[in-house]
Amino acid sequence: MDIVGIYLREAMKEGCPICRILREYEESEIDTILYEHVNDPAVRTKFKESLGLCTYHAWKTLKKAYSNPLLGPLGVAIIYEHMLSTYIKTLESREKVKEGECFLCLLVEEKEKDTVEAIAERIEELLPVYESSEAILCKRHYEMIGSILREKNPQSAERLRKVQLEKLKKLREKMNSLIDKFDYRATERPTKEEVSSLPRVIEALKGLKNGATLRKKERKRRVRSVLLWR
Ligand SMILES: [Zn+2]
Ligand SMILES: [Zn+2]
Q1: What is the pLDDT of residues 87-99, one digit of tens each?
Q2: I need a surface site. Which of 1, 12, 22, 38 has the fewest CB within 10 A?
Q3: Quick one: which ligand is closest to 58's CA?
Q4: Cα 181 to middle of ligand 2, angstroms
Q5: Measured in angstroms, how far is the CA atom of residue 193 from the centroid of ligand 2?
Q6: Any idea which ligand is nearest the CA of 210?
Q7: How far is the CA of 199 from the centre of ligand 1 (A)?
Q8: CA of 55, nearest ligand number
C-alpha cells in the first residue's frame, strides 16, 4: 500500500473515516492560521472576501483560540477588528457589503473530494480493512464513493454495498439492545458499546459537521431563494 493508502487505513478506526479526516484537517488549518498567518496579507484577503468566514467557521476559530492557552483571543481579535472596519467602511460609503464564500469551506470541500477519490482508487486494498474495522462511512460519503465505483469498478461497488449493509445492521442491533435496556424491567445496564451506538447512528446518517456539508446546504438554500424570488 502506498503512503496515502496507509494514511487512509489508519483513518478506518471508528465512525466515518472521511468525516474524521475532514474534522482533523479543518482543525489543523485553523491552527495554522492562528499560529502563523494572523498577519499574513494573503490570508487576510481571503478572510475579507467572506467578511470573516462563514458563521460556522468564525465561531469554530474563536472557540479554538480560546481553548488553547498558547493562542488566546488576540489573533482572532486582530483579524475581526479588520473585518469590522471593512464593514463600517462599506456602511459609511453606502456600498453593498460583499460576503463571498468562506475559504475554509472551500478548502474542506476540496479535501473531501480528494479523500473520496483516493479511497475509491484504493478500494480493493482498503475494503478488507474497512470491513474488519469499527468504521462506518456516513451516508453522504458512502454515496460519494459509491457513485465513483459504480462507474469505474461496479464489482467493488457491490462489495462495498454489502459490507455497508452488514455494518448498519450490526449497529441497529446494538441500538435495539440499548433501547431494551431502558425498559424498567431490564436488569442489566447498557454496555459502553451500546451507549455509543446512539452517536454512531447519527454519524452514520448525518456525518460530522464540517465545511463541506454545511456549504452544500447553503448552496441549496441559495438556489431555493432564487427560485422563490422569481
Ligand atoms: Zn462522512
Ligand atoms: Zn466555512
Answers
A1: 999 999 998 888 9
A2: 1
A3: 2
A4: 40
A5: 33
A6: 2
A7: 13
A8: 2
Nearby residues of 90 by Cβ (< 8 Å), 6 or more positions away: 96, 97, 98
Q: Which residues form the domain of 116?
A: 1-230
Distance from the alpha carbon of residue 64 to the mean position of ligand 2, in angstroms: 14
Q: What are the tens digits of pLDDT across the range 49-69?
A: 999 999 999 999 999 999 988
Q: What is the DSSP annotation of the chain? A: --HHHHHHHHH-SEE-HHHHHHHHHHHHHHHHHHHH-TT-HHHHHHHHHTTSS-HHHHHHHHHHHHH-TTT-SHHHHHHHHHHHHHHHHHHHTTPPPP----HHHHHHHHHHHHHHHHHHHTHHHHHHHHHHSEE---HHHHHHHHHHHHHH-HHHHHHHHHHHHHHHHHHHHHHHHHHHHTSTT--SPPPHHHHHHHHHHHHHHH----HHHHHHHHHHHHHHHHHHH-
CA of residue 160 to ligand 1 center, whole Å = 15
